[in-house]
Every structure is written in C-alpha cells, then in structure tokens.
Write a structure and sequence with these properties.
This protein is an alpha/beta fold. It has one domain: Double Stranded RNA Binding Domain (2-Layer Sandwich), CATH 3.30.160.670. The chain is 28% helix and 32% strand.
C-alpha cells in the first residue's frame, strides 16, 4: 500500500512537471475605440478597402480571415456589398511573423528668420506583436474613422488549418463583441 502511494505520488508529480513544460496558447486581448458622436444603428452595408502599406497575408490565410470577419459582421446585422454607396468601409491590418519593430519616419523642418533654419529627422520604433489584427471601420460618406479594434494573437499563419481557424474565430468574436458600441442612455 505504501509503495502504491509512493508510485501514485511520483506519477502525479511527473504529470504536473510535464504539464508545466507544455506551451500554453497565447491569450487574446482586445482593445477598441469609437467615435462617441456616431450613431452605429444607421450602418447596414460595408465594403472592403485595402491599406496599400499594410502587411499582406498569404492568399489562403487572407481568405480565411476575411471569411471569418464576414460571418461575425453578418451576425452584427451588416451586409457586404461591392457598391460604391456602402455605409461603411472596412480595412484590416495584421502583424505576422515574430515580434518585430514597426518603423515610421518622422521628419520635421523649422526655419527661423533671415534664412536660418534647421531640419530634423528621426525614426519612431514601435514593437508589433505577432498575430495582432487591427480592424478599422470608416464612415464611407465622410471617410472618417468611426471604430477601431485590435485583438492580439488572432492569427498564426503557421498553425495547422483547424488550429488557425479556431484561434481566428475566437479572436474575431472577441474583437467584435462590442460592435456596435453600447449606447449610453
């Protein structure tokens, strides 16, 4: 009996030790912001637009991402259209690969009197984490950003298809949980 307890305890400890060694899937966090003066109830249709400077996904992953977003947007009462008179323009931006710096150049110039002047240039570096998805929603008529949401760890382009879809679906569902934004009475 004593040997059985010792063996059971040893096996239990080994299982715990192995479990601690297994990598856990990264958690997904969401942040969003919106124009508080916008009535989101008036929006019924959307059209996809692209951001020319945005990082691109491979064709299969991009199709999977857009399809998953469209399913969730339909649940929110929005209908996709290719017509120019859509209510909303939607765009997304992703960060794939490993953690990497995202650089944007900041160039400024100032000139004093009598021809004196100075020019300064710099590079701002921000860390973008792998798998981050940013969804941007613009009012089509005014071309004004009305909603922006970011979900971390939404995309793992190197995962097996079922795992990739599962992570993407969970992330996008979390991302759009508060769309349209709650109305204040």
């Amino acid at each position: 009996m004593r040997n059985f307890r010792l063996l059971a305890f040893t096996l239990f400890a080994a299982v715990l030790a192995l479990g601690a060694q297994l990598p856990l899937p990264p958690s997904q966090s969401v942040v969003y912001d919106f124009d508080k003066n916008t009535s989101f109830l008036n929006y019924k249709t959307y059209k996809w637009v692209s951001i020319p400077s945005a990082e691109q996904l491979d064709e299969l992953t991009a199709g999977q991402l857009v399809g998953t977003l469209e399913v969730e947007l339909e649940k929110k009462g929005l209908t996709k259209t290719d017509a120019e008179n859509a209510d909303l323009y939607l765009a997304y931006q992703i960060a794939s690969g490993k953690r990497k710096p995202l650089q944007s150049e900041n160039i400024g110039a100032s000139y004093g009197s009598a021809g004196g002047g100075s020019v300064s240039a710099g590079v701002a570096v921000t860390t973008v984490h792998s798998g981050q998805l940013t969804l941007l929603i613009y009012d089509a008529a005014s071309k004004k950003l009305v909603w922006r949401g970011v979900v971390s760890n939404a995309i793992d382009a190197e995962a097996k298809p079922d795992k990739k879809q599962s992570r993407m679906s969970k992330g996008i569902e979390k991302l759009l949980k508060n769309y349209p934004p709650p109305r204040k009475s």
